[in-house]
Each structure stands twice: as structure tokens, then as C-alpha cells.
Amino acid sequence: MASQARGDPAAAAAVLAWYDRHRRDLPWRAGPGEAADPYKVWLSEIMLQQTTVAAVKPYYAAFLARWPTVGLLAETRMEEVMRAWAGLGYYSRARNLFACAKIVAGEFGGRFPATEAGLRALPGIGAYTAAAIAAIAFGRRAAAIDGNVMRVIARLFAIETPLPAAKTAIKARAEALVPGARPGDFAQAMMDLGATLCLPKQPACGRCPVREFCLGHARGVAASLPRKAPRRERPRRRGAAFFVRRADGAVLVRTRPDKGLLGGMVELPGTGWETAFDETLALANAPLKARFRKLEGSIDQAFTHFALSLTIYVAEVRGDRRAPSGYRWTPARALGNEAFPGVMRKVIEAVRRSGIIVGGD
Q1: Are 204 and 192 contacting, i.e. CB atoms less than 8 angstroms apart?
Q2: Could you identify which of 41, 285, 305, 332 might form a hypothetical disulfide with 249, taking C-beta atoms 3.0 to 4.6 angstroms apart as the criterion?
Q3: Residue 33: its pLDDT value, please?
């Protein structure tokens, strides 16, 4: 029978022993016995929020090559950060990243606070990120609970209360399990365990270092944990996007306001995104008068709280056409350097597939 794992030092020791043999080699992770760089830990943890390791790796490498210190990042411009972040999604992270860099470089002399409380006072750093930085970069005894760790804890202690109600119990169990020694390695070990063995649908219990301590495994319910309350269906919004190309190849764009959804990002002109969108009125909201043609189909994008479908209208205008107020022309060859969010990149790709040449081809 599985032992009672709560606070069990043997379970924590087993996780660390497994980590010493099977740790993932990640570009932001310090080697065995090396001190972690708080800047690298912070940068990676912000990027990894709701984003996979595979997606983050190239962005992390590019950021670090361009801004190797928090001071250099703080000295750049918001537009440059947004441009470098384009395509990674959840763009409020980029705005908070820049704001946090400014504070750390300016108010703290380039040094990150070493405590969870101090870190949580900074823009973009919530409970998980503060705990991860405190543990990994500063050796604090903190429980960094991301989705992977939440799953490991729910199974280890057979917590059957559905999420999100189970979070309180999971937090208490996770905090009790953190060892006094090597808390940073333990935090990363738990993340690795959830990412490589304690998988959502097919946990590799036969290779798990804490199988003998796992109540979920002992009761035969590990694969079904954590339980989740039924998800509410996302409402669907609709709208139109206008791809306007000038005869000289320039494309009409604008920058969204700094605050709000996709704040500070660049977009093609478009209508509002509404649940009761009336497509018959779409062209009345076009940014300028032109002969638009509608592309077949639509593009879809899922946001946190709603799903979006966009109809695309395309027009070409004379080379001397001036941009309407609030808009600007950007050369087609420079489209790839604009800070477009994923949904706008989908629109541009749909236009490419339609046969209209963009991007300097």
C-alpha cells in the first residue's frame, strides 16, 4: 500500500534522485552545482506562462542574444519588445515584461527581489512565477505550482475534488512536500516529472520515482486525476479584417491601444469583434473606399474567453493613396518584422494563399 506522502521526505528525496539522473537540458536552466541567473529564470518563466517549452526556446534564445541583461532590456523601446514577442501569444506578458525590466533596472539596480512577496509586487509576476523564481534563482523554500505540478500533486495525494476547487488542497500538499535542501532543484524536478512521466492521459507510472508513495496509483485512479469541473463553452465572436495593398506593395496597418486585448500589437484594419456581427454592414466599416473582394471561408482563433471567426476582404489601391488617420503603410517586405499577433498572421497567410503577392515575393 502506498505510504502517506504528505510531507514525506522520502518522496521528495526520490524526486530529487530521479531528477539528478533524468533532468531536462533546457537553455535557461543552470547546470548541476551552478548558480541560476535570476534574469534568465525570470525571462523563461514569463515566456513559459501558458506556452510550451518547444514554442519558447527560439524566442528565449533571440531575447537573450539581443538583451543579455535586464538593464539592456529596460533600455530598449516597447515597440521592439512587442516585435520580438510577436507570435508567442498572450501579449500582456510582453508589456509586463518590459514594465518589470524598467522597475528592476531602475529601482533595484538590476537585482531582482529574492522573496516571493517582493517578486509578486512586480508587473506580470503572479503566485506561481514568484515561487518558481524564488526557489530556482534564490534557493527559497517555495512551492511552484504550474499545471504539471498540480497534476502530480493531485495524483500523489489522490485529491479527487474537481478543479478549480481543489487548488487550495493541492497548494497545501505541495508546500508541505518541498524539502529544505535544494528547493530550486525540487521545483524543476516536479515540473519535469509532470512534463515527461506524469502525463495527462497516459501517466508512465511504471517509471515514476514516487509510484510507491502515490495514493492515486495505489487506488487505480491516477490517470483520471486531477478531476475537472465541466468547461463552459467559449462564446463565438465574429468580425471582418481588411487587407489593403497599395500599388507599390505597401500594406495598411495600425497599432492597437496599449491597454486591452492584444494591447500594443500591430493589426490590419478591421471591424469590431461581436457575437451579433452583421456581415452585410462589414464594408461600411472599411478603413477607406476601395473595390474590396471577399475571400472564401474565414479564419478562426481561440482566445482565453472567446472564439473568433474573421471574414477577410482584400483591395488594392493606387500607389499615392494616403493612409487614413490612425493608420500607416508598411512595405510588404517588412510585414514579417511587424508585431502582429497570431490572428493577424493567419489573415496574412490566408491572403498569401489566395494568390495575392505579399512579403516582397
Answers
A1: no
A2: 332
A3: 86
pLDDT of amino acid 139: 97
C-alpha cell, 11 = 518522496
Q: Assess contact for 278 and 316: CB atoms under 8 A.
A: no
296 is catalytic: no
Running along the chain, 361 residues long, what does each successive block of 10 average in pLDDT? Answer: 60 97 96 94 96 96 98 96 88 93 97 97 96 98 96 97 95 96 97 97 95 96 93 92 95 90 91 94 94 94 93 95 95 87 94 72 36
The correct CATH number of 236-354 out of 1.10.10.10, 3.40.50.2300, 3.90.79.10, 3.40.640.10 is 3.90.79.10
Angstrom distance (rounded) from CA 259 to CA 26: 33
pLDDT at 304: 85
- CATH number belonging to domain 9-224: 1.10.340.30
Q: Which of 354, 84, 91, 93 is nearest to 241 (CA)?
A: 354
pLDDT of residue 350: 95
Amino acid (one-letter) located at 33: G
Angstrom distance (rounded) from CA 73 to CA 1: 53
The per-residue pLDDT for 358 is 55
What is the C-alpha separation between 121 and 130, in angstroms, rounded? 9
Q: Do 253 and 268 touch, CB atoms closer than 8 A? A: yes
User: Which residue in the block uniquely carries the three cell numbers 469590431?
Assistant: 272
Whole-angstrom distance, CA of residue 128 vs CA of residue 125: 8
DSSP 243: E
The residue behind cell 452583421 is 278
* Residue 326 CB burial class (10 angstroms; 0-12, 13-18, ≥19): exposed
Domain boundaries, the chain: 9-224, 236-354
What pLDDT shows up at residue 357? 58
| Block residue for cell numbers 491572403 | 351
* Given 45, 116, 267, 338, the catalytic residue: 45
Residue 351 sits at φ, ψ, to 5 deg, of -65, -40
Answer whether 238's CB lies under 8 Å from 274's CB. Answer: yes
pTM of the model: 0.79
